[in-house]
Amino acid sequence: MAQIQDPIIPIVGELIRQHPGTISLGQGVVNYPPPPQALEQVAQQFSSPAMHLYNAVEGLPALRSAIGQKLAVDNHIHLSDSQAVVVTAGSNMAFMNTVLAITQPGDEIILLTPYYFNHEMAIGMAGCKAVLVPTDANYQPKVEWIRAAVTDRTRAIVTISPNNPTGAVYPRETLQAINQLCREYQIYHISDEAYDYFTYGVEHVSPASLENSADHTISLFSLSKAYGFAGWRIGYMVIPIALLPAVRKIQDTILICPPLASQYAAIGALQVGRSYCEEKFKAIQQTREIVLNELAKISHFCTVPPAEGAFYFFLRLATEGDAMAIVEQLVQQFGVAAIPGSTFGMTEGCYLRVAYGALAPETAAEGIGRLVKGLAAIVDSEG
Questions:
Q1: Is 110:133 a contact under the CB 8 Å cutoff?
Q2: Residues facing 113 on adjacent strands
Q3: What pLDDT was estimated at residue 382?
Q4: Residue 312, phi-psi category: left (phi > 0), alpha (psi -120 to 50), beta (remainder)
Q5: SS3 at position 351
Q6: What is the 3-state secondary structure (H, E, C) of 220-270?
Q7: Res 46: pLDDT
Q8: Dihedral class, residue 16 (left if φ above 0, else alpha if ψ from -120 to 50, else beta)
Q9: Is the N or the C terminus of the chain less surrounded, counting Cβ atoms within 10 Å?
Q10: Which alpha helices (H) appear in 52-199, and where do they start and end?
Q11: What 3-state class would DSSP assign to 71?
C-alpha cells in the first residue's frame, strides 16, 4: 500500500479547509441534489423490517430491472442471457470488482493517459501492473499505440468516455476499433461511463451496444454525477455472465450488499429518468461557456484541448513549474483550487484539471476569474 499514490482529493480538500473562502474547481461533483422522488422512495420503505436486513448480493431485483430499462433506452444496451447487472456502492467499487475478477497478481491492464487515478490505484492494490498508453494532443486514443502495448499478461483495456479527467468523448469508430481489438486478443474491454449523460453536441457510444461485444465488454455506470447521488454511493456494472460467480464472491466479501436505503433512492431516481438530469444540465452548459470564455484570455500560455463531455477541462500550461506547487499557490494566494495533472499520470509537462460541474452559473465567473488571474500571475510572469 505504501507504493500506491495518495488520493489527491482529500489532500486538496485539506488545503481548501485551511483557506476559507476558496472556490473549488477540484472535485468532480454537480451542484444539484437528487430528485425528490428518490428521497420519497426511501421514506416509503422505512417502516419495512426488510430495510434493516441483508439483501441480494447483486442488488434489489426492482433496481436491476430499472437499470435494464435505462440501459436499453439511453445506452442502446439490450441485455441478453449472456449478461448480468450487478449493483455496487459506486462505480469505483465496480472497477475494483472487475480487476479482482479478471486478473491474477502480475497481470497487466492498459490505461490511457491521462488516466483516472482511482483506476491506477485499484490495479496496483490488486498486485497488477497498469500499462500506460498515451493519447494524442486532443486526448484521443490511438488504436495502434494500444495494440503495441498488448502482451501475454494483458487482461483488459480501459476506456473512459466521456473522459475523466479530460472531458474528451471518444467517437464510435474509435470505441469500435478498441472493442474489436479486445475481441481479437480475447481480453476484456472495461468501459467506464459514469458521465454518459454529459455530452455537448456529440454522441455518447456505449461499447456494450456494439455488435458481438457482450462476451468481452464490462460496462461501469454511476448515479453519482447525473442524479446528484455522490454521497449515496450507487453504481452498477454490466458484465459477461461468466464473471458473475467471481463478482458475487468479491462483493459478498467486501460489501455483502449495496445499502438498501441507497438502492431504493436509486429506484426513485431512475423512475424520474433522464429528463431530471437534462433540466439541470442546462445550467452546467451555461457554466461551461463562461469557463471557456475566461480561459480564452490566457490562451497564449494555456492550451484547452476539445472537451465535449463530462464537466472537466484538462489544461496544458506552457511552464516548467510543478503542477502541485501551482495548485498550492492558487489556493493560498488566489482563493481557487484545481487538481494537478501529475495525479492523472501526466508527469512530463504541467497540467491542471478544472472541474466546473459544482459551480452555479452565477458563481462560475468569480471562480474561473480567480483561476485565470492566478495563472496569469504565476505562469505568465515567468515569461
A1: yes
A2: 134
A3: 65
A4: beta
A5: strand
A6: EEECCCCCCCHHHCCEEEEEEHHHHHHHHHHHHHHCCCCCHHHHHHHHHHH
A7: 86
A8: alpha
A9: N
A10: 61-74, 91-102, 117-125, 143-149, 172-185
A11: helix
Cα–Cα distance for residue pair 206/217, rounded to 1 Å: 10
pLDDT at 113: 98
- DSSP class of residue 184? H
3-class DSSP state of 33: coil
Query: pLDDT tens digits for 248-275?
Result: 999 999 999 999 999 999 999 999 999 9
CA dist., res. 316 & res. 350, Å (int): 6
pLDDT value at residue 310? 97
Stretches in the chain below the pLDDT threshold 70: 382-383
Provide the pLDDT for residue 383.
54
E strands within 294-349? Answer: 302-303, 312-317, 336-337, 339-340
- Residue 362, helix vs strand vs coil: helix
Amino acid in the structure at residue 286 = Q
